[in-house]
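Are you able to produce any protein sequence you like plus the matching backbone structure tokens because I've never seen that pairing?
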Amino acid sequence: MHEDILDLIKERRTTEDFLPKYVDWDKVSKIIDAGRHAPSSGNIQNWKFVVVQSPDRKRELAEAAFGQHKITLASALVVVCGEEEKGERYYGLRGARLYTVQNCAAAVQNMLLEATSLGLGSKWVGAFDEDKVREICGIPAEVRPQAIVAVGFAKSDPPKPPKYPMESLIYLEKWRSKIRNVNRYLKNHAAIFKGNVDEVKHLMNKTVSQVKKKAAPKSKSITEKLRERLKARKKK
């Protein structure tokens, strides 16, 4: 039984500021290995990874990424490339234009999570000049750069970004068919209890009051008291 990965997913952050510290190759290779084990359409695995660690080339990639110079302090920049021709060979135009993008995105997400598990910071860079990145890394024309993943030691832990509540994102069976209580539908009893803590306290207090009321001795009426006195006199 594996540990729930949801905590790791929630812990992941986009690192904007890196410390100028070296990350050893063992950790970088683990991150790439995580990308290698991502799902892909028909398991065609039409991706390649270009690892850039030299300062000069990192600066060139930062310029190609429209001046995102902060990534130059990351220990490594991994350029994730999609082999569109391979996707098209198996799945036609949809394989080239959609499945290749999806496959590489899955690989990137795996890499970000592995970086988090290793105590490293990471950033998914998607804005860059593709032709310049091709030129810098010697990527052939038939291969398309999909993302640059910056990996290094985070200077600080970014705050948790706000997320939309689940009830605003989930529809049941069809579009716009809302779930009134997502936690109850998904059987999240802890969240239900937390959300209704005041109601639970009220019910508990009410129950305790009822129990005390039933357990308390009833006061005797005047008639009952007189009967008891008469019985006591007869016994004498």
Q: What stands out?
A: The beta strands are 18-19, 47-52, 76-83, 121-125, 143-154.
